[in-house]
Amino acid sequence: MTLESFAPLSRFDVARLESVLSRYAEGSARASHLLELANRIHTGDHADPVVMPRDVVTMNSTVILTNVAAGRQFRCTLVFPHAADSSTGAVSVLAPLGAALLGTRVGNTFEVAIPSGSCKYRVDELVFQPEAVRRYDL
């Protein structure tokens, strides 16, 4: 997906993600998915959380994704690194899947680089978005 393909990011998410990414910029080169995430944060559109479109994946959103090649659906929640837990489906925004997921819309298909090539996912449902229920503290 190109930068134009992504929906606006929440200004609240952007402020918190800038801090998180700055910690990972020190001392080592960033992986390509983190460079792409940083580019979206710094050059993409931002929206006030109060008017965030209800079909956009924001931080702490829970979604139903389909692995297109395998035809399997799974549920995951996009979280900050400290809350990541694969046993509960909590995916870090700094992981390749999490970085690609932020700012997608229901119906979007996107690719994630994996060691054996790439994997294509589709966003089937946005089960929970904090902004939709006015939870600006998540």
From TrEMBL:
Residue span(s) of domain Transcription elongation factor GreA/GreB C-terminal: 53-123
InterPro entries documented for this protein: GreA/GreB_C_sf, Tscrpt_elong_fac_GreA/B_C, Tscrpt_elong_fac_GreA/B_fam
GO molecular function: DNA binding; RNA polymerase binding; translation elongation factor activity
Keyword Protein biosynthesis applies: yes
Origin: domain of life: Bacteria
Keywords recorded for this protein, A-Z: Elongation factor, Protein biosynthesis
Gene3D superfamilies to which the protein is assigned, alphabetical: Transcription elongation factor, GreA/GreB, C-terminal domain
The keyword Protein biosynthesis belongs to this UniProt entry's keyword annotation: yes
GO BP, one annotated term: DNA-templated transcription elongation
PANTHER family found in the cross-reference section: REGULATOR OF NUCLEOSIDE DIPHOSPHATE KINASE, TRANSCRIPTION ELONGATION FACTOR GREA
Protein name as catalogued: Transcription elongation factor GreAB
Organism this protein belongs to: Sediminicurvatus halobius
